[in-house]
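Sample 1 of the test manifest.
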Amino acid sequence: MEKMSRVTTALGGSALTGRTMHCHLDAPANAISVCRDAAQVVVAGRSIFKIYAIEDEQFVEKLNLRVGRKPSLNLSCADVVWHQMDENLLATAATNGVVVTWNLGRPARNKQDQLFTEHKRTVNKVCFHPTEAHVLLSGSQDGFMKCFDLRRKDSVSTFSGQSESVRDVQFSIRDYFTFASTFENGNVQLWDIRRPDRCERMFTAHNGPVFCCDWHPEDRCGAARGGSGRVARMGAGEGCLRTCTAEGGPSPERRPLSVSWTSRRGWLATGGRDKMVKVWDVSTHRAKEVHCVQTIASVARVKWRPECRHHLATCSMMVDHNIYVWDVRRPFVPAAMFAEHRDATTGIAWRHPHDPSFLLSGSKDSTLCQHLFRDASQPVERANPEGLCYGLFGDLAFAAKESLVAAEPGRKPCAGDRRHPIFFKRKPDPAEPFVGLASSALSVFEMEPGSGSMSWFADTAERYALAGRPLAELCDHNARVARDLGRNQVAQTWTMLRIIYCSPGLAPATSLNHSVGKGSSCGLPLMNSFNLKDMAPGLGSETRLDRSKGDTRSDTVLLDSSATLITNEDNEETEGSDVPADYLLGDVEGEDDELYLLDAEHAHQEEPEYVLPQEAFPLRHEIVDTPPGPEHLQDKADSPHVSGSEADAASLAPMDSSFSLLSVSHALYDSRLPPDFFSALVCDMLRFYAEQGDVQMAVSVLIVLGERVRKDIDEQTQEHWYTSYIDLLQRFCLWNVSNQVVKLSTSRAISCLNQASTTLHVNCSHCKRPMSSRGWVCDRCHRCASMCAVCHHVVKGLFVWCQGCSHGGHLQHIMKWLEGSSHCPAGCGHLCEYS
Amino acid sequence: MFVARSIAADHKDLIHDVSFDFHGRRMATCSSDQSVKVWDKSENGDWHCTASWKTHSGSVWRVTWAHPEFGQVLASCSFDRTAAVWEEIVGESNDKLRGQSHWVKRTTLVDSRTSVTDVKFAPKHMGLMLATCSADGIVRIYEAPDVMNLSQWSLQHEISCKLSCSCISWNPSSSRAHSPMIAVGSDDSSPNAMAKVQIFEYNENTRKYAKAETLMTVTDPVHDIAFAPNLGRSFHILAIATKDVRIFTLKPVRKELTSSGGPTKFEIHIVAQFDNHNSQVWRVSWNITGTVLASSGDDGCVRLWKANYMDNWKCTGILKGNGSPVNGNSQQGNSNPSLGSNIPNLQNSLNGSSSGRKHS
């Protein structure tokens, strides 16, 4: 808090110096006021009334006005004001309704001058006339405002606020006779001091009490800047006031009144419990709201900042202990914030009427602070000027402050930008009325379809076959899908899996012929480079990277250890045996389907054996209206067809764990390695895909291979993959695929996902009462409840119904019906709503 | 490959946050003008504002969507020291006919005494929880015990960070092996405040969040922090927006090796650090697979970062905020000026990167 910076501001002859500092008071302060020499400040509270000298480094207590042995309620101050013309004259408002004036020029210790005991209740505010030496105004909780002439013993005139409590009174700076008063019912009244019978004007400013007001001080500066001058109705007034203050002599320091003003000089700022500060133009016939600032707590004090025509300072009486300085043109974000106080700030005052950098404040935390504007924290500076979010399909939403986006290219040159200069157009924004107002440009960068957006994910998920066919077919199918989508590495992986796990005799000869005959793009000699090319982008799952590869990195040497595993695997396949290698390359075109017809027929007969085990699934009779799955197959399913060929291939020399796959693979392959041999590699591969963010591949392979690899990956990891993939699928609204994955998973935690909350509570469409028992017949009216309202047949399959009237029917029928009518097809008159 | 679609947001002050929903079809924006707007994507890809309402009495810093399983629910946080939870009301009304939807406030979380700088819903598997952080350095974690009742939130944890917090991120991993974890960034600018990123982890035994790690190397104010979507990875990736973009990996050390019950130990590596924005980086955001990071900075550009097969992160594209194209590839020597085309050239990203050296 103790910042050592010091500021000197020259104001004509005198100069203000100081720093951000604070001093402890003995008691909470209720109000503060500054002497016109800007070197002293008076602090008043329930049990404090002191004058402090503001020195460069500290506050120095100068005078304690609270004298006398027994404390008097007259000294319990709600407000204090120091006369701006007379350094010796102070007035306080007491909580017991007394208005006291103080004359510092009195030689005695007790400086009390006059005592006015006219108000019945707490006086909330006292205010000296800005130019008249002896005129004092008070506003009280009892609903009255009183004007005192300090040369008389009692009030000159009383103004009635119609029984509403007065929270603030302020003499106008513009108009000699005018003052404003604010009320607890939200009204603001403008009075002519010569006419105590009724107010000149009244308007509702706030919702709830108006705690404070402040006139714009522009003409204190003396210069009428920039505004078109207008002649005031002035002149005859002084005599009138003198009639009020009949016996008094002419005031010694009467200043010539300015007779022209800018439009701003009729501005009145008001603050209320509704957390708003409103700026009113009262120079016109009707008070017009020109600005509205939204603060975060009720506004207890408002003070225009000197020399900054759009700035005002506010503080709150509860919740918020900070002082804010607002630029009324940017009504949502404070320009500056002072957070020194630990309890509610009760009084704020700018130290000098022509100096914008020093603000004094008193608080309930018993401190008096001087704030330097340049030490203030600036929420605007800390506020984040940009928002950025990655969308599902790779699109990006980006909102940025316009000045950042539209900045000239040379503003902050960076290496990249200098090399490629950027050209922008600054679009003038007609909605930007002030320079100070900030706005943001919002745009969404969308991926063009098919250009590497996430659509590959959805396509892959939908087209992959995960079960229901022989392993070889699944692998081939999935490889084809991957290749179609341009994901060569993934396709390669599927093909490899097929080779590893399926009997090599399944299709080798035909596929060899096939690939040679077609002269497919990759000949055998290119084998290595082809593999490498596919490997290179492999780390990313994004296919768009793949396309640029072919020409650039066929000779890249792979060093990365994680990639080496796969490379070895590739090489092993390709070097180990020509036949599967060719097959690997040839498996591109659709003709494969024909080739497989042979096998497919053969496979069809055995298909039940390929069904993945479903023992993880409890019966679902009550959910699906179909007979339970073929459980009788489950026993067989545990030993799938391929295991047969695995078994006879299992004659193998013991494997040395440290041998190089690459060097000996030829021999090994020839002697038909058991698929178990690869399972460690395959598991590593699955982990590799998962670590690279392609959990789709990991889960798909896991499901397709089933028992072959499952045991080698710990349950927790599998579950993690499953939940991640299911979450992704649901993001893309691929509910069917997601459910299929749930069904095919063997992890108990996953497979129970679609067992939860499967109950639907429906009403009978005839009697409209809840169906209690399961089945199709309502217990109460003994009629079939699931009749289609359109075709009057019993619905089997997709049944859609309105939750309002319980009528429904075949999905197709209802959809068709609703195209023509929004009423219920059953004729019940209900306006059905389907979502 | 990107097409910029400019949207007239019509916010009256700065937009501080943009957020897509779970399915990427809705978008929420929040602004200093104290309002939140919800945008829905139409069939032809246009974004339409379907709701705009005043949410707070101060700048709204962040807005975030809950998982749709809990309904159409938004949370916002503000300078006015509160966070709020909003729910969209369905039903026939005039609003609906005009294409407008209606959002109601379900709760206001008023525990903070200072500006609430971030709010994030926890990953779905943890239930309906949200975390807020505030400028006085406290992270608060709330839970709605009944997911059907969005107006009941109980304050479960208060974590003191000792530093003014600016951003939080939940670890999205759904693995049982990863206990709930939250990373907190601070934009405290006082010179004696050192490490600006702290990571807290839930301890099953004490049922409290305890500090697991502090990233000592991040000493500049942090504006945004984001865990990458986990998707089955065994380790975590954390992106940090400070005066530059940084990417860290956190590999949990095997539980058996650490003393049981204590916080998980992590092997932390910085895998990338880019100062291409030349100034403050304000936002980082991951794509859904956690493979591409987007960052935005004071230069008004969005830059995309992606790892190549060497785990070597490179810039793969630059997007200018006002929609004008910028050629990507400022990193590599082989410049490929294609000004005028609307394509930040993503394919160049790996060209010439074969001499891969690791950032560290």
